[in-house]
């Protein structure tokens, strides 16, 4: 078997947003990664196979995990083609399997991701046709094997995607509403809030239920990949199915269903409530999450709890003044009905923080779809400092 780059270095790579890196380091350490070295938009780490499978199966915060296969100079598309063609793809792509390439290039003579991906694809197909007499099929949406090409400063790194595309997708989002949160971002909210998973948590604008689902996964210790049918690491040339089934069995055995009433939420929109109930039903313990239809303004006083929510911030048909006064209403709700709670509110628009009428005790920068957002903590004392 060829000695690929990750065999030589023992290093794998996890991709994560710049702001979530600190949370990501903590998560990787908890899952057993060693010698974590931060890099731009991610980190390298050492892991043996048991630890690697556990990381890919359980990590909630990362967007991608990669096993580097080759690294080489790529000063032109032709050079890229020639180098890729010498690589033993027959050890990775088996007859009948499909593949796709995700490419990202920067600061290099090769400056077009799509063309670079095309060249790499041609080289792989040409090699396999010469070796086997048939070209593999490309499936850009749902391939068996996801390959990653990263070219920076004329150095190319080719890697196998270990989750098998979109690590953040858990599989529970079967129904959605406008502007759902990315699962890994909701998981970052839960982690940043330091919620203990034992005291009640509430989302008063739950949309399709992403925060509630991530809270459930955290509290019930449901692995992030629990609903995923297949993983990219199954295509590692040294994949060991026995190790993987042991890792999976051990992680699944830790699942502990939450008590009724631990996690709950509401939304004013009936479709959102329906979507949340459907989505949560895919997770163990999802039936224990209570979701009702209500405007937050009409809710009764909440028992002291952790509130985590992602209000709308640029709703269609809502003028700026309306969004500002709506944000003020969230502040009033927290002051009047949430005494004794800690509230974490995500603001996609930073200027709205001032409009809530409360002083945040913490601010956590987290971007959402390119927007520079802030997760803010408001401590709602009983009694109280605010009233
Ligand atoms: C940005 S979305 C939340 C998305 C959610 N985190 C998800 O991942 O699907 C904001 C939600 O707030 C709800 N909403 C807006 N005004 C509300 C109000 N006054 N009371 C309760 N919910 C409200 C909307 O119906 C929408 O579902």
UniProtKB/TrEMBL annotation:
SUPFAM superfamilies, sorted: S-adenosyl-L-methionine-dependent methyltransferases
Top-level taxon of the source organism: Bacteria
A GO MF label: rRNA (guanine-N7-)-methyltransferase activity
InterPro entries hit by this protein: RlmKL-like_Mtase, SAM-dependent_MTases_sf, THUMP_dom
Keywords of this entry: Methyltransferase, RNA-binding, Transferase
Residue ranges of domain THUMP in the record: 51-162
Matching PANTHER family: RIBOSOMAL RNA LARGE SUBUNIT METHYLTRANSFERASE K/L, RIBOSOMAL RNA LARGE SUBUNIT METHYLTRANSFERASE K_L
Protein name listed in UniProt: THUMP domain-containing protein
Protein source organism: Lentisphaera araneosa HTCC2155
């Amino acid at each position: 078997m060829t000695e690929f780059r990750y065999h030589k270095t023992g290093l794998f790579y996890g991709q994560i947003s710049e702001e979530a890196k600190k949370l990501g380091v903590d998560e990787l350490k908890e899952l057993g990664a060693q010698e974590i070295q931060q890099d731009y938009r991610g980190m390298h780490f050492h892991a043996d196979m048991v630890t690697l499978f556990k990381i890919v199966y359980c990590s909630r915060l990362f967007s991608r995990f990669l096993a580097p296969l080759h690294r080489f100079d790529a000063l032109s598309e032709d050079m890229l083609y020639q180098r890729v063609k010498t690589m033993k793809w027959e050890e990775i792509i088996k007859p009948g399997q499909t593949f796709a390439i995700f490419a990202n290039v920067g600061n290099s003579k090769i400056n077009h991701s799509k063309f670079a991906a095309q060249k790499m694809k041609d080289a792989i197909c040409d090699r396999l046709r010469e070796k086997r007499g048939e070209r593999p099929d490309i499936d850009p949406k749902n391939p068996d094997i996801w390959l990653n090409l990263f070219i920076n400063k004329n150095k190319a790194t080719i890697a196998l995607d270990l989750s098998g595309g979109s690590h953040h997708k858990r599989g529970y989002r079967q129904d959605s509403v406008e502007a759902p949160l990315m699962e890994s971002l909701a998981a970052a909210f839960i982690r940043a809030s330091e919620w203990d998973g034992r005291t009640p948590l509430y989302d008063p604008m739950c949309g399709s239920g992403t925060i509630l689902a991530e809270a459930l996964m955290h509290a019930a210790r449901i692995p992030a990949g629990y609903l995923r049918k297949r993983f990219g690491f199954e295509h590692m040339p040294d994949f060991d199915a026995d190790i993987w089934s042991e890792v999976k069995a051990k992680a699944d055995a830790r699942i502990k269903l939450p008590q009724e009433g631990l996690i709950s939420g509401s939304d004013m929109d009936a479709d959102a409530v329906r979507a949340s109930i459907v989505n949560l039903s895919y997770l163990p313990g999802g039936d224990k999450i209570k979701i009702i239809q209500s405007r937050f303004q009409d809710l009764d006083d909440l028992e002291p709890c952790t509130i985590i929510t992602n209000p709308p911030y640029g709703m269609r048909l809502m003028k700026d003044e309306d969004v500002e006064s709506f944000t003020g209403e969230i502040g009033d709700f927290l002051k009047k009905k949430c005494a004794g709670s800690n509230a974490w509110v995500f603001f996609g628009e930073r200027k709205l923080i001032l409009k809530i009428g409360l002083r945040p005790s913490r601010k956590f920068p987290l971007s959402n779809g390119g927007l520079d957002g802030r997760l803010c903590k408001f401590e709602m004392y009983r009694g109280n400092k605010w009233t």
